[in-house]
Structures are given as structure tokens and as C-alpha cells.
Amino acid sequence: MAEPSTTVAVIPRETFSQTMDVLGTIVANTAPPYRLLVVDGGSPARVRRSLESFAASRDATLLRTERLLSPNEARNLALAHVDTELVAFVDTNAFVHPGWLDALERCARETGAWLVGPLYLGVCRGNGPCDTVHMAGGDNRIDEVDGRRLHHERHRYAGRPLAEVGPFERGPTEMVEFHTVLARTDVFSTLGPLDEALLSFHEHCDLCLAVRERGGEVWFEPEAVVTYQLPRTLAPMDLPYWLVRWSDQWNLASARHFVDKWQLSDGGDSIADVTRFATNHRLFAYRPYLSPWVRLVRRAGREPRPLVDRWAQAVAHRAARRRDATPARVAHAASWSRVEAGD
Questions:
Q1: How far apart are CA 315 and CA 289, in angstroms?
Q2: Can you give the pTM of this predicted structure?
Q3: Which residue has the higher pLDDT, 270 or 118?
Q4: Residue ranges of the domains in the chain?
């Protein structure tokens, strides 16, 4: 069998409960050869044990930290173990469809693209097929308007029924997302590591802007398809990570850093957009647990959501700070790994 040209790196995004299902779709829908690397950022014991068993049975390298990781931090940990020509980052709630990796690799080779993204379906709630578009390429640029630097970002065809807007054609685009993206590994030698100050927002915008600023191209490949899927309700095991990942603390820090880094003039609007998005994301987590308390709190003349939101974020961050901060370790080393387990 030919030597793999791609390492598939599975990265925690916002949930733990979907990780094993995502790995199942990768194994079922990805033709070899490829290398598989999984980053586990503080998953609960049940998932940790499943990942250890999976890594041993599938010859995958498993990196483990006891603390929660931001996505870019997890990606940088993965990159330190990648020596293939290409790396495909897959989030732990992105379900790949058959032939996804072959299509992304083919596009990269035929076009010379530095980054290639698939057709993203979703966001779907619960299991089952999804027939709406999350993104089919996108707009991501900085426009100079009357001396002001304004960031323009737009998902193409977001929320549209797939049957109404397809079929799509391969082509250059300004933006792909980290739900699933194929990158030339030497991109990170050119640009340096991913920006870990972007804790939860604008990571994909930042990378795509940097690639295009250095003369690289970003391409959309619709023959590769993934579904960004969330559960109908969050499992209790997902709440601690979700609330830190989408907290005001992480989101505002990310938005402010992005504004400063790219010298944007629309910082107030950008930060307000991030705040609205993150608040709605957090409320998705509370919804199943909030209703029994709503009537009681409203009798006291208070609006329950802000109270619950502030309290839950504070609790989640306190718990995160108490976690073991020792460096990442190799919990299982694949046969191709350059290091041994425990290093």
C-alpha cells in the first residue's frame, strides 16, 4: 500500500458525546491510506476509555490533556505530530460523507490550493440526514471604505435547502471553515502556528486571510461533503466544555484580538455580533434545564436567563481552572508515530 499523504486530525470543538460517532464515520467513509490522530482535551472518563480502546484497535495516535483545550491549541498540538504532505482537521461534531478525503486531496493536487474545504451541511439538531446548507464556500475579506478597514464575512447559501441551490462547482473561495478543512502541512511552516489567542472565534477567518495575504489560494470542493451536526439537547458531559468554549470570557477575548490583529475599524460591530452569537449558543445548552426554574425566578421579578447564564459561565470557568494543567501526553502511539506513549 502507498504511503499516506494525509494525516486526519480529529479536534475537540464544543462537545465530547459525539466524538466516537464522528470517528466511526471517518473509519467507515475514508479510503486508506491515511494516518489518524485524535486530540482529547479533557474528555470525561467514559469517552477517554473509548478513545484509548479505539486508538489501540485502529493504529491511531491519541494525544491527551486533562484540561480543556481551545480548538487552535488542540490543532497546534496535532501539528507537532504531523509529517505528511497534507493534514485534514475534522471537528468532533463534523460527520464526513463517503469519499470526502479523496475529493479534498484531488482538489489540492489539481489546483495547488493551500486550503481546501468541502460542502458543509447543517447545522442539524439530532441524528439523521440534513438537507440544508451550512456553507458552500464563503466571503472573507477586509474592505477599505472611506479610510476604514471593515471585515466582511458571509457563508454562501447558509440555511438554504440543498435541493434549491445545488449542484455546486469546484472553485476558489475566500473562506472555508475548520469543521473540516484540508491544508498543506508546509502552510504552517510559512505562516507559523495557528493563533492561540483566538480561543473560540474567527480562527478560520484568520487562517484564510493569512493564506491569501501570502499569495496562497483557498478552494471549495463540493464533491467532498460533511455534516456539522449537534445533538437535539446537550448531554450533561458536554456542558462544562460548551460553557467555557462559548463563554463571554473566551469569545470577547477572541473578537478583540481579531480586531486588533487585522487593524479593523468596525470593532464595536464585530464584538457585538460575536456576543449575540455566543449568547444564543449558550442558551441552547440551558434550554432543557431552565424551564423548571423559570416560573419560580420570574415570581421574584427577575429574568432567569441572564441570571443562569452568568452563574453557569462562572461555575464552568472555576471548574476548568481546577483541572490538571500538566502538558499534553501521547496516550497511545500509532505504529507511525515518532514518539512513544507517555512522552
A1: 15
A2: 0.94
A3: 118
A4: 1-343
